[in-house]
């Protein structure tokens, strides 16, 4: 039997093949154009529905992000208002303490002001220095100078950021640091450093901006180099603080001689002998650190203070980061001896003791400083959230218009698809 004579058996469960026959025109000719058009339109309608749903989901998701940013801002505003109320309450409490202590010694307050003014005058003598120009700006414009773009990030001059109880110790510490460091400007962040000095395309200093421009405007051209210290880039002290100590002095292990005894004449560490205004004891940096564990720890480290040169020399085996003695001896941190005598023109102001104020006063001051720091961080968070919200709303508006335009352009396909679905139902 030939192949042509063999019968082909189809399986009983074979699925029928649906063949769309083309339409015929009035003349009996097949209308292949209409057939192709209807097939393409049917596929386009399904794609339109799919893309429409996809765009709708994107718009919905962007709307949820906007809502989340709005809720975050609402929460942060509530947090900021709570901090404002707490700060106000504590400031009222401080006011009561100050009123009760008004009968305290006025001579000490006057001496404190005069000592600070004396240090400022000493800085102003270096009229062509960066510190002298900055102090001139502060003297002329007062508190408004802190809000200028040029100086708003400047915390102060090293010589003005600490106070020392004893004039002789103050001179010794100033001598140890040196004039250039005492005149150094302290900024909170690197942005403050960039504002103080700018450069042109060739890398030369722009004399019309920053401190150079400010100096020229007041007739004091800035000469030579000057030091600027960036607090946020300093590695802070990583140890503990002395418990219940208002000045947050560092709990550094006392030195020991090879025989295990304390060196005679040891008076303490220089970093703990500098008194710091309460406003700078806490949260001087965005990370929450104060000036003692950042600025002054990096300037003095574990510098020893001894009563006499003889005591200092006897303690050489346990001196690692330098030492000074009250009779003028100085050993640098790298075991370099500073000999001879030098007249110190610039020193730290003398401390003002607040002995008539209760311990709670300083604790409230600390809490206010901490809350103000938290408030600043909250405001920064609010600004970031607002920027994200504005960006999200902008993108949402664009995507929404894109979605509406898509619906308008493809409405005929979607209506046709829905009519076909209703007809088949």
Distinctive features:
single chain; 425 residues; alpha+beta; Alpha-Beta Plaits; five-stranded mixed sheet; three-stranded mixed sheet; elongated; disordered N terminus
Structure description:
With 425 residues, this protein is α+β, with helices and mostly antiparallel strands. The chain has a domain of 218 residues: Alpha-Beta Plaits (2-Layer Sandwich), CATH 3.30.70. Helices cover 50% and strands 7% of the residues. It is built from 12 helices and 10 strands. The strands form 3 sheets. It has a 5-stranded mixed sheet with strand order 6-7-8-9-10. The protein has a 3-stranded mixed sheet with strand order 3-4-5. A two-stranded antiparallel ribbon has the order 1-2. The two termini are 52 Å apart.
Helix and strand layout, with pairings?
Layout lengths: L22 E2 L5 E2 H69 L5 H19 L5 H12 L12 E4 L9 H11 L1 H4 L2 E3 L2 H7 L13 H8 L10 E3 L35 E4 L8 H4 L10 H9 L3 E3 L2 H6 L8 E3 L4 E2 L5 E2 L20 H51 L1 H14 L1
Helix pairs in contact: 1-11, 1-12
Specify the helix fraction band: 40-55%
Name the CATH class of one domain: Alpha Beta
Instruction: Outline the low-pLDDT stretches.
Output: 1-41, 102-110
Main sheet properties: 5 strands, mixed
Q: According to CATH, what is the topology of one domain? A: Alpha-Beta Plaits
First-to-last CA distance: 52 Å
The number of helices is 12
Organism: Nicotiana tabacum (Common tobacco)
Protein name: Protein DEFECTIVE IN MERISTEM SILENCING 3-like isoform X2
Keywords: Coiled coil
């Amino acid at each position: 039997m030939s192949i042509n004579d063999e019968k082909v058996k189809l399986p009983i469960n074979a699925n029928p093949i649906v063949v769309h026959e083309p339409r015929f025109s009035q003349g009996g000719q097949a209308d292949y154009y209409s057939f192709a058009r209807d097939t393409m339109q049917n596929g386009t309608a399904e794609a339109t529905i799919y893309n429409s749903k996809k765009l709708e989901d994107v718009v919905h998701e962007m709307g949820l992000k906007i809502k989340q940013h709005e809720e975050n801002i609402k929460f942060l505003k509530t947090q900021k208002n709570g901090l404002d109320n707490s700060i106000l309450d504590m400031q009222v409490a401080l006011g009561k303490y100050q009123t009760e202590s008004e009968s305290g010694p006025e001579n000490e307050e006057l001496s404190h002001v005069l000592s600070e003014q004396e240090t400022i005058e000493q800085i102003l003598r270096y009229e062509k220095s960066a510190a002298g120009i900055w102090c001139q700006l502060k003297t002329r414009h007062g508190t408004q100078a802190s809000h200028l773009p040029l100086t708003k990030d400047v915390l102060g001059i090293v010589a003005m950021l600490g106070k020392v109880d004893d004039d002789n110790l103050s001179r010794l510490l100033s001598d140890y640091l040196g004039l250039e460091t005492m005149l150094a400007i302290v900024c909170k962040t690197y942005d403050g450093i960039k504002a103080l000095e700018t450069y042109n395309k060739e890398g030369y200093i722009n004399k019309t901006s920053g401190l150079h421009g400010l100096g020229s405007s007041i007739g004091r051209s800035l000469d030579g180099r000057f030091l600027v210290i960036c607090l946020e880039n300093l590695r802070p002290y990583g140890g503990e603080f002395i418990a219940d100590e208002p000045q947050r002095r560092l709990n550094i292990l006392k030195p020991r001689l090879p025989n295990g005894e304390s060196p005679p004449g040891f008076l303490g560490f220089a970093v703990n002998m500098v008194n710091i205004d309460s406003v700078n004891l806490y949260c001087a940096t965005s990370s929450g650190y104060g000036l003692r564990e950042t600025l002054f720890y990096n300037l003095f480290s574990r510098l020893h203070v001894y009563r006499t040169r003889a005591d200092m020399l006897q303690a050489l085996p346990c001196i690692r980061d330098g030492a000074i003695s009250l009779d003028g001896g100085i050993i640098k941190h790298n075991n370099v001896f500073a000999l001879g005598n030098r007249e110190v023109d610039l020193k730290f102001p003398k401390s003002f003791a607040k002995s008539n104020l209760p311990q709670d006063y300083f604790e409230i001051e600390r809490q206010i400083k901490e809350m103000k720091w938290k408030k600043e961080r909250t405001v920064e968070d609010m600004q970031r959230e607002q920027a994200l919200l504005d960006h999200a709303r902008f993108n949402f508006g664009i995507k929404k218009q894109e979605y509406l335009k898509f619906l308008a352009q493809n409405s005929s396909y979607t209506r046709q698809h829905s009519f076909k679905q209703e007809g088949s139902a």
